[in-house]
């Protein structure tokens, strides 16, 4: 019985937290940043798959978005933002903040390197995406937990 | 004592009774008849390698954190957390003493499809033989041939760290009696070769259900919940529903699923994470037709 009261309390508390979703909260900000990274990766993927024509400007813009966004991404994990707002951030981030930052830096560094060489055609974009995709997965493997 | 613990203990006592009573023979380890493993001929090593990746053996049996070029050294040691305690995957390299180099094809085949160890003991289902039970003798023979071409390792993995009564292998006879089956998990149109291949890969070799299907307190799959999503055995988070009813992948096309298994990208440009990363890397090594077959099977599942 006590257990059930506790669970109920937790559920109510949970509802309370999600109800006050404010755009400025770190959980919301970092999710927005990741969405931007995802959209940029999506634009590259469209070209790699031949669904969109190769366009150097879009490739440049997407790579810059990725590198700039992951630079600031790790700044949005202050203590106290471990839970709430349907965050999918793993508690391991706060235990291994240095490694988490290093994984963000790896993606940023790779995106910059690719930007400097600028893939010249569809196949080049595909190869670049292969490298970046591994960086995304390597961080999501350790530090991101799906909720549903 | 929690409700779950109590249910669990009474279940275990029931199992113990079933095992100890007149029905002892019901729960004794059951190997295949010797003939099952005879006359299979020279293994096809290329197919053996495909079976190896589809089966994900390296995900558990390579040393924890092994870099990509060490993934074929099956030294063991990886810790697998479960509600029953922590298992450590053993060394299955071809080393004669530390590994399984001195095993026969039949011993190997009975371990992987029936959960029977070299000395006739029950193996724990954390080794997903409950799925591998569906493997053809040919695939087992090819896999066995391939494993023998891999490097040896002298590593001895730590023993399992399990609480009573789970540390008693005998009790596993009860688990097998209740849950070990090589029957199909769901009915799909088997006349369709692609769906049949997908079923073999998902229900058997790829052991997708071991993570994606919820379990009851005795560690068996919840009936009617095949691939419908489950708590993450490592703690927080959930392993997603991958049936057509899924909130996330329900809207994916078959080619979206195949492409996710190949590249790790979802159609909305999220990327694969958690325990699925290893699985996706393995799936990326299969021929495109296999990934398409998996996707077709997932799309053909009954929605829950």
From TrEMBL, chain A:
The record ties this protein, via InterPro entries, to: Cyt_c/b562 (IPR010980), Cyt_c_II (IPR002321), Cyt_c_prime (IPR012127), Cyt_c_prime_subgr (IPR015984)
- Does the record carry Signal as a key word? yes
Q: Which GO terms describe its biological process?
A: electron transport chain
Ordered alphabetically, the record's keywords are: Electron transport, Heme, Iron, Metal-binding, Signal, Transport
Q: PTM per UniProt?
A: Binds 1 heme group per subunit.
One Gene Ontology cellular component: periplasmic space
Binding positions for heme c?
136, 139-140
This protein's superkingdom?
Answer: Bacteria
> For this UniProt entry, which residues form the secretion signal?
1-22
**Molecular function as annotated in GO:** electron transfer activity; heme binding; iron ion binding
Name assigned to this protein: Cytochrome C556
Taxonomic classification: Bacteria, Pseudomonadati, Pseudomonadota, Alphaproteobacteria, Hyphomicrobiales
From TrEMBL, chain B:
Q: Name one GO molecular function term.
A: kinase activity
Q: What is the lineage of its organism?
A: Bacteria, Pseudomonadati, Pseudomonadota, Alphaproteobacteria, Hyphomicrobiales
* A Pfam family of this chain: Cytochrom_C
Cell inner membrane: present as a keyword of the record? no
| First and last residue of the signal peptide | none
- The Cytochrome c domain extends over 43-151, 193-302
According to UniProt, the name of this protein is: Diacylglycerol kinase
What organism is recorded for this protein? Sinorhizobium saheli
Q: Which PROSITE patterns match?
A: CYTC
- List, alphabetically, the InterPro entries matched: Cyt_c-like_dom, Cyt_c-like_dom_sf, Cytochrome_c-type_DH
What the entry lists under Gene3D superfamilies is as follows: Cytochrome c-like domain
Q: Which UniProt keywords apply?
A: Heme, Iron, Kinase, Metal-binding, Transferase
């Amino acid at each position: 019985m006590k257990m059930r009261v506790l669970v109920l309390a937790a559920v109510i508390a949970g509802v309370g937290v999600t109800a006050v979703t404010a755009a400025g909260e770190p959980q919301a900000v970092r999710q927005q940043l990741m969405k931007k990274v995802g959209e940029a990766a999506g634009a590259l993927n469209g070209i790699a798959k031949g669904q969109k024509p190769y366009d150097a400007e879009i490739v440049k813009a997407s790579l810059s978005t990725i590198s700039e966004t992951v630079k600031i991404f790790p700044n949005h994990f202050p203590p106290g933002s471990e839970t709430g707002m349907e965050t999918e951030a793993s508690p391991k981030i706060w235990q291994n903040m240095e490694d988490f930052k290093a994984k963000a830096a790896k993606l940023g560094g790779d995106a910059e390197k690719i930007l400097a060489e600028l893939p010249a055609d569809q196949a080049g974009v595909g190869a670049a995406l292969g490298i970046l995709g591994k960086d995304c997965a390597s961080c999501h493997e350790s530090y991101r937990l799906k909720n549903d | 004592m929690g409700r779950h613990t109590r249910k669990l203990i009474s279940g275990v006592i029931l199992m113990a009774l079933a095992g100890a009573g007149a029905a002892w023979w019901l729960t004794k380890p059951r190997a295949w008849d010797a003939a099952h493993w005879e006359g299979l001929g020279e293994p096809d090593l290329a197919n053996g390698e495909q079976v190896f990746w589809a089966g994900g053996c390296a995900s558990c049996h390579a040393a924890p954190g092994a870099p990509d070029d060490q993934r074929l050294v099956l030294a063991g040691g990886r810790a697998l957390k479960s509600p029953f305690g922590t298992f450590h995957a053993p060394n299955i390299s071809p080393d004669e003493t530390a590994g399984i180099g001195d095993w026969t094809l039949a011993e190997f085949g009975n371990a992987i499809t029936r959960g029977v160890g070299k000395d006739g003991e029950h193996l724990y289902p954390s080794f997903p033989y409950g799925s591998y039970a569906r493997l053809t003798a040919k695939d087992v023979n090819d896999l066995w041939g391939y494993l023998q071409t891999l490097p040896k390792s002298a590593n001895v993995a730590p023993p399992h760290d399990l609480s009573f009564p789970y540390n008693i292998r005998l009790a596993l006879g009860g688990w097998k009696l209740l849950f070990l089956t090589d029957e199909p998990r769901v009915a799909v149109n088997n006349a369709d070769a692609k769906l049949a291949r997908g079923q073999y890969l998902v229900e058997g070799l790829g052991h997708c259900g071991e993570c994606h299907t919820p379990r009851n307190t005795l560690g068996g799959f919840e009936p009617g919940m095949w691939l419908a999503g489950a708590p993450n055995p490592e703690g927080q988070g959930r392993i997603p529903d991958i049936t057509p009813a899924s909130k996330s992948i329900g809207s994916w096309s078959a080619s979206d699923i195949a492409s996710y298994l190949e590249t790790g990208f979802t159609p909305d440009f999220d990327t694969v994470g958690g325990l699925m990363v290893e699985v996706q890397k393995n799936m990326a090594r299969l021929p495109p037709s296999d990934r398409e077959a998996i996707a077709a099977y997932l799309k053909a599942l009954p929605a829950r």
